[in-house]
Amino acid sequence: MTETLNQIKDGWFRELTRAWPGSQDFAMTLKVEEVLYHEKSKYQEILVFKNAFWGNVLVLDGVIQCTEKDEMSYQEMLTHLAMYSHPNPKRVLVIGGGDGGVLREVAKHKSAEEIIICEIDQCVIEASKKFLGGMGKGYSDHRVTVNMMDAFVYIKELRENPVAKKFDVIIVDSTDPVGPGESLFKKEFFVNLFHLLSDNGIITTQAESHWHSLDMIAEMSKFLKAIFSQREYAYTSVPTYPTGEIGFWVLSKQTHSNKTPLRKPTPVEQKALNYYTPELHVASFALPAFAHRKIYGDSN
Fold first, then answer.
1. Please, are residues 176 and 63 in contact by the beta-carbon 8 Å criterion?
2. How many other β-carbons are positioned within 10 Å of the β-carbon of residue 223?
3. In what order do the strands lie in the sheet with 45-51?
4. Torsion-angle region of residue 232: left (phi > 0), alpha (psi -120 to 50) or beta?
5. Catalytic: which of 70, 99, 121, 173?
6. Which residues contact 201 (CB under 8 A, 6 or more apart)?
7. Residue pLDDT, tens place only, 110-120
8. In the chain, which segments carry CATH 2.30.140.10?
9. Closest CA to 151 of 123, 127, 186
10. Which of 167, 171, 135 is nearest to 151 (CA)?
11. Between β-strands 28-31 and 12-15, what pairing exists: parallel, antiparallel or unpaired?
């Protein structure tokens, strides 16, 4: 129960994880002003603490998931790379994302008529509503339906349901590929997602950093190429994540690229955004040469 608390030494939280290749050689350290919440749920250990600069910080199994100051870059890019690549997204599925940040962003689109979230851990939802209100408020939208269950099982059951309706956008806001989130990085999961996607639908999914997980990303690239017509890797800056960056897969059945948004935010929509812009949408797909070679080989 105290394993994550043991990562607090002399008033500083140290993210000492072994989740990624090379991670034993670097760490993120944040000063702890106050521990706000600590709970061991059925699935993981949850910690929320306050930092004077980054605001409230959510930690799952010893790994920083988000901070109030920089969550915008992750939540907005993961959401809007998909939402603005679709001509009229009405039915949206969010997998994971218990903090509610993706729900908040999806709800900014008036076209969204139905927003379904599948989250395994009720404790994460409750902690986020109480201590991460800027994200937790995503649950307050009347279009949101919450399904509390394992996402892999949920997706498999939907695929086997002959009358299940397709989704215009599917957003996978998973933890890292260890523990509860491990199955969400496997080929079978994406095959099932493919069958739940409408013909012009878009998928975005958390895809780690090309600095520490390039081999895994490259392996995913191979099996995703066999499933989707388009599989394109983007990334964004998140200062409190290892290496300061996180990547996304943008996937679709369409032959056209999703590197340029199909729609752009209206002036009112753009005013409600703190990070995403159409220009950043395009720029996020520009990879360093070493990463592009490894992920795509000789061609995209």
1. yes
2. 15
3. 34-40, 45-51, 55-60, 63-67
4. beta
5. 173
6. 86, 166, 167, 168, 169, 170, 252, 253
7. 999 999 999 99
8. 5-67
9. 186
10. 171
11. antiparallel
Whole-angstrom CA distances from 37 to 56, 131, 179 are 10, 8, 21
298 is catalytic: no
Contact assessment for residue 55 and residue 67, using Cβ atoms and an 8 Å cutoff: yes
Q: What DSSP letter does each residue of 249-293 carry, written as one string?
A: EEEESSSS-SSS-SS---HHHHHT-SS--HHHHHHTT---HHHHH
Tokens of 154: 């949920």
Tell me if residue 230 falls in helix, strand or coil. Answer: strand
Which class does domain 71-296 fall in?
alpha beta
Query: What is the location of CATH 3.40.50.150 in the chain?
Result: 71-296
Q: Return the pLDDT at 299.
A: 57
pTM: 0.95
- 57: amino acid identity, one letter: V
**Are the beta carbons of 120 and 127 closer than 8 angstroms?**
no
The answer to whether 212 and 242 have CB atoms below 8 angstroms apart is yes
Give the type of residue at 60.
L
Residue with tokens 């800027």: 134
Q: What's the chain's length in residues? A: 300
pLDDT in tens, 41-80: 999 999 999 999 999 999 999 999 999 999 999 999 999 9
Give the percent of the chain with pLDDT over 70.
94
Positions of E strands within the chain:
8-9, 12-15, 28-31, 34-40, 45-51, 55-60, 63-67, 91-96, 114-119, 144-148, 167-173, 197-206, 230-237, 245-252
Task: Using alpha carbons, list the distances in angstroms from residue 206 to 70, 74, 96, 174.
Answer: 16, 9, 10, 6
Work out the number of other CB atoms within 10 angstroms of the CB of residue 286: 10
From 2.30.30.240, 3.60.15.10, 2.30.140.10, 3.30.70.360, which CATH number describes the 5-67 domain? 2.30.140.10
